[in-house]
Amino acid sequence: MGYDVVVVGGGHAGLEAAWAAAALGVRVALVTVNPERIGTMPCNPAVGGPGKSQLVAEVVALGGLMGRAADATAIHTRMLNRSKGPAVQSLRVQVDRDLYALKAQEILAERPIEVLRGEVAALWVEGGKLLGVRTVDGRGIPAKAVVVAGGTFLGGVVWYGRRSRPAGRQGEPPARFLSQSLKAVGHTLRRFKTGTPPRIRADSVDFERLEVVPPEVPPGSFTGNPGPFAAKLPTWQTRTTERTHRLIRENLHLSPLYAGDIVGIGPRYCPSIEDKVVRFADKESHLLFVEPDGLATSEVYLQGFSSSLPPELQEEMVRSLPGFERAVIQRYAYAVEYDSLDPTELTRGLQSRFLPGLFAAGQVNGTSGYEEAAAQGLLAGLNAARYALGLPEVHLPRESGYIGVLVDDLVGRGTDEPYRMMTSRVELRLLCRADNADERLIPLAVAWGLRSKEDLARVEAKYRRVAEELRRLEALRIEGVSGLQWLRRPENTYEALLERFPPPSPLAPEEAYQVEVRAKYAGYIERQERLREKMRDLEAHPIPEGLDFPKVPGLSREAVEKLSRLRPRTVAEAARVPGIRDSDLTALLVHLRRLA
Ligand SMILES: Cc1cc2nc3c(=O)[nH]c(=O)nc-3n(C[C@H](O)[C@H](O)[C@H](O)COP(=O)(O)OP(=O)(O)OC[C@H]3O[C@@H](n4cnc5c(N)ncnc54)[C@H](O)[C@@H]3O)c2cc1C
């Protein structure tokens, strides 16, 4: 039987891709080596955090499943950066690792998605046309569109010290052949690497010696529905010691990275403990987070302690940490090296520039993290379904939020290390907050068939009430100024205002929050709105597809080289290419005006 969309991979990108494609009513199959492991979290058992929680909020707004699975299986939640502004406040939800995967599989089963067991060996291409995929046993699976979401599995090699073996991650075989097929289509592959910390047997840890971080009560959630155990468990903190650092420094030659065995480039913002000790040599100690792996599991996860040093040494390193003097390692830390695509060879809808109907999402596009993978999976799955239906590709512009920035950065600039989302990458972060993702994206989700019209009606009603309340505050007089001006004073709160001047009907807590943010940060919000106009203005200057950049008078040599390679579609995209100067943009604008 033929499919409209075949998704290769059951990780966080593959899950969202299949889920989004199925929302459009097309026939979807998800092919994965091991269906029981769909939704596995190979690294930390947590969703969200700075930059990432905003991605999850957008995935939720666009009808994705990650937020639902995380909320249902949460065991501890925390709002990070609470003392900072609303732009950077970020929810982090610690989940039960096993339950998360089961919940994700349960949600997936709500839509008619066929899960097939198999290793995809190649794209099935005839006469330059994509016909589907072929598995290692020679089976052909016909499909109009294919989403490759192979994660760390393509050409995967895991490293424990200087010993390596082919694997996609611990205990799972690599995808041995798919890389060749992607290369044959014309894609460039690079070697990236990432790593994970050791898991420790919980009953071997002296928790009395650790600093406790209690869960927040009431718990936070991505969907407004925290699960039954969301405030159940604490997490803990410990620190590296002088002995830990000495052990690492004295044994760096045993690290495959420092010995030069690993050629792949690792994530700068998620460095191994070896990297931290070497790069920040003057730092005496590094903070580590000790996180439970689940409600009933016997393991704790040592966040911040990822390593590729040999297992014997890991024992000593772990035992040098306060509270871990008698620790028993259940699973050793390791690094994984894998093939990843150059994302500049994709469109903004995550489609291959070389083979129509081929899409790619997740770690395979050069990113790192579950949330980054989920966000891309959703977009790629949506566009794969649209391709199968003969509809044009859609994308999220940069100014629409975090997913827009993620894709724009990947496709427009590329990345030479595993890309991780951060709030600082988003110019309009005060406009594109996690709390207003519903307002920004639900209208698009409804237009694209990812959510229902009732959802749109609900969100419109919510923001109508917010607007009405803002108008009421504008008209209110308090201490000689309007209610809005009064609220802008740092010492005043909306809660205090409500006590004195309650509205005709009370607002829901999430509506009241919107009112307070909009009133308190009005000045900054206006400034960002002006910046958005400027971005849109540059966006409104398209660059003709075949423009011969060497013939644009006044462009620097660097600009000619980079713009010819990256082929930005608008002046705004050209402006974001690193190394492009204002003088290059002026030259480009003058030239475009002349052409017009
Ligand atoms: C060791 C390790 C360390 C990590 N460290 C970090 C970190 O420090 N920070 C961070 O943010 N993230 C880290 N991650 C990354 C995080 O796990 C990924 O970003 C995320 O899981 C990517 O999701 P994905 O869907 O792209 O791929 P994955 O979750 O890797 O899923 C890939 C899926 O594709 C399937 N598959 C692959 N090839 C084929 C094929 N040919 N045929 C059929 N099925 C196939 C696999 O079976 C799997 O189901 C780490 C991952 C690993 C393995």
From TrEMBL:
Location (main, coarse): cytoplasm
PROSITE patterns listed in its UniProt record: GIDA_1, GIDA_2
Residues the record lists as binding NAD(+): 266-280
InterPro entries the UniProt entry points to: FAD/NAD-bd_sf, GIDA_C_N, MnmG, MnmG-rel, MnmG-rel_CS, MnmG_C, MnmG_C_subdom, MnmG_C_subdom_sf
Cofactor(s) listed: FAD
Residues that, per the record, bind FAD: G9, G10, G11, H12, A13, G14
Signal peptide: none
Top-level lineage group: Bacteria
tRNA uridine 5-carboxymethylaminomethyl modification enzyme C-terminal subdomain domain ranges (all copies): 519-590
Annotated GO CC locations: cytosol
GO biological process, one term: tRNA wobble uridine modification
One GO molecular-function entry: flavin adenine dinucleotide binding
Location in or out of the cell: Cytoplasm
Keyword annotations of the record: Cytoplasm, FAD, Flavoprotein, NAD, tRNA processing
Keyword Cytoplasm carried by entry: yes
Record's keyword annotation contains Cytoplasm: yes
Pfam family, one: GIDA_C_1st
Function in brief: NAD-binding protein involved in the addition of a carboxymethylaminomethyl (cmnm) group at the wobble position (U34) of certain tRNAs, forming tRNA-cmnm(5)s(2)U34.
Sequence similarity: Belongs to the MnmG family.
Binding partners and assembly: Homodimer. Heterotetramer of two MnmE and two MnmG subunits.
Name by which UniProt lists this protein: tRNA uridine 5-carboxymethylaminomethyl modification enzyme MnmG
Gene it is expressed from: mnmG
